[in-house]
Design goal:
The chain is an alpha/beta fold. The chain has helices at 3-12, 43-48, 73-88, 101-113, 130-135, 156-164, 179-182, 185-192, 194-200, 271-284, 289-298, 325-337, 357-368, 396-407, and strands at residues 16-17, 28-30, 53-56, 67-69, 92-96, 118-120, 144-148, 168-171, 206-210, 224-230, 237-243, 247-254, 260-267, 307-310, 315-319, 343-348, 375-379, 391-393, 413-417. The chain contains 14 helices and 19 strands. It is globular and about 70 Å long.
Length: 431
């Protein structure tokens, strides 16, 4: 079956599923394969559960005239998503970057929604499966789409960019993350820059540029840019940090315009750049500064990203969804600025750093000692050699045991930061 023929089926059955536990009536099931699963084995079950058709790539799967056999299910899903996107012509903003891409996506969507009907990536559906599933949710009623794309190896952003075929792009930043897959920091820069490379060859495409980022500005040659950054540099959107104790409080203005002050519910001075990026995108699509201010002020973060949680015993700065050397430094720099009688940091190890892992964990452990914390708990094998002056735990279970034994903090401001795999997101309920 050709993509155009499959597309006609999709128009009649526009709900996509890849999970037999979620088979809405009249949906299309795509039997994806993984390292430990094969969706082909469950295709007939999906049909019995309500799916209209099942797309499979195992010739041995038979038994229904509602099975659609293709060479590669994942490739077909991606091609269908690109085909659908090309038919609707909806303006798409593609966002990538080492840190802050999800927060920037959420803020950008919030700003755009103050005036437009917006499709945006849900959660962290930013990979080779999540991106096509996002695009296949696009309908003619959407006036703009915001699509987040992530990567942990070279070529991935280029591949996702071809699927998305965005009209404009935004790289939040480049940092020292996934070095095991990228090989080096330079590999990170090249991979994130693949978004610029794609847009450079598309007529009329442009980028939203953080003019303060020295790693990004050299990469935009030949591209039209809409700039944002700190005041005094002539950016299209410029901003100033006013306070961050604990919530980000800033002001911004469009070039030549008046200042607008915004008090947010976001923790972290580092989120100023993300907010300015959202304002720049919104301004391009007709959102006024007043509308943008109200949208950002109303936004409340979730999913353990830049959250302030107040419990019976403590105030928690929870940023436990992910961590790498760049985001760790930003979090610790911000925590240093936050004033409290008693401060504590619980830091989980950083994953996928390859040969520089020991060096980077040593730097973070040393940096934590400069934040004014009375206590520092380091979690994970990579931190063990650098636990001098801090308390080391092998895993989150050991931390939970210590808290349950009455050794946890009270009346303290506590930073919780680590890679998702360390599972520090389990701690707030105990603190």
């Amino acid at each position: 079956m050709s993509i155009s023929e499959l597309y006609q089926l999709f128009l009649s059955h526009p709900t996509i599923t890849t999970d037999t536990r979620d088979c809405p009536p009249s949906s299309l099931f795509f039997a994806l394969r993984g390292a430990s699963f094969d969706g082909n084995r469950f295709a007939l079950q999906a049909l019995e559960s309500g799916c209209a058709y099942a797309v499979v790539d195992d010739p041995a799967v038979t038994g229904s005239d509602r099975l659609i056999h293709v060479n590669d299910v994942l490739q077909t899903l991606q091609e269908l998503a690109h085909y659908h996107r090309s038919r609707l012509k909806t303006p798409i903003v593609q966002i990538t970057g080492t840190n802050g891409k999800t927060t920037t996506k959420e803020l950008t969507a919030a700003v755009l929604q103050s005036r437009l009907h917006v499709l945006f990536t849900q959660g962290n559906f930013n990979n080779h499966i999540g991106v096509p599933k996002t695009l296949l949710r696009l309908t003619p009623s959407h006036q703009v789409a915001v699509v987040e794309t992530g990567a942990n190896h070279p070529g991935e952003i280029a591949m996702l960019s071809r699927i998305v075929d965005a009209d404009c792009g935004l790289i939040t930043n480049v940092g020292r993350a996934h070095l095991e897959g990228f090989g080096s920091f330079e590999g990170v820069v090249r991979t994130k820059g693949e978004l610029y490379d794609y847009l450079r060859q598309k007529p009329g495409a442009f980028v939203f540029l953080d003019a303060d980022n020295p790693h990004l500005t050299p990469l935009v040659q030949g591209l039209k840019t809409i700039t944002y950054g700190v005041a005094g540099k002539g950016c299209d959107v410029e901003g100033e940090l006013l306070d961050c104790t604990p919530f980000l409080h800033f002001r911004f203005r469009l070039a030549g315009g008046q200042w607008h002050e915004v008090e947010t519910h976001i923790v972290g001075a580092y989120n100023l750049t993300n907010a300015l990026a959202a304002i720049a995108v919104g301004s391009h699509f007709g959102v006024s500064p007043v509308e943008a201010s109200q949208a950002i002020a109303s936004y409340v973060p979730g999913n353990n990203r830049s959250e302030l949680m107040v419990t019976e015993k403590n105030r928690l700065v929870v940023d436990a969804y992910n961590a790498n050397p760049t985001s760790m430094q930003a979090a610790l720099d911000n925590f240093r600025l936050m004033q409290a009688p008693h401060k504590m940091a619980i830091l989980g190890e950083m994953r996928e750093l390859g040969t520089v892992s020991a060096e980077e964990h040593g730097k973070v452990a040393a940096m934590a000692q400069t934040t004014g914390c009375e206590r520092i708990w380091l979690v994970g094998r990579e931190f063990r050699p650098f636990a001098g002056g801090a308390r080391w735990f092998p895993d989150v279970e050991a931390v939970k045991a210590a808290i349950q034994a009455g050794e946890g903090p009270t009346d303290s401001l506590v930073l919780i930061k680590g890679s998702n795999g360390t599972k520090l997101f389990q701690l707030p309920a105990l603190l």
